[in-house]
Design brief:
Layout: H1 2-26, E1 31-32, E2 35-36, E3 42-46, E4 52-58, H2 59-99
Antiparallel strand pairs: 1-2, 3-4
Length: 100
């Protein structure tokens, strides 16, 4: 019983990832060094050593990138759900086979 509950965890986690992907596609939020960005804002890139590079990214650019990546999160979530469902089906078949 405890094992089956753990297997359902895959389904729940996959659902959470898929929903997160959908939400980030519909209403993406973006920030620049921890500060939430809004329409018209810009953010200057910095290197790993915090040196300014002179490259600037607009809010709209960041939102576009977030929307491009969202389908991958949804696909990953669906994949996790399918994986969990397969494990649950295999586990239930194993339980029935051992009971017979």
């Amino acid at each position: 019983m405890i094992k089956r509950i753990g297997l359902w965890g895959f389904v729940v986690a996959g659902l959470a990832v898929a929903v997160w992907g959908i939400v980030s596609w519909v209403a993406p939020a973006t920030s620049c060094r921890g500060v939430e960005m809004h329409q018209g804002d810009t953010c200057e890139y910095s290197s790993l050593t915090n040196e300014k590079t002179g490259e600037v990214q607009r809010y709209e650019d960041r939102v576009a990138v977030a929307r491009e990546q969202a389908p991958f999160a949804v696909a990953a979530g669906v994949g996790i759900i399918i994986f969990g469902a397969v494990l649950i089906v295999q586990d239930s078949r194993g339980v029935r086979a051992s009971a017979a």
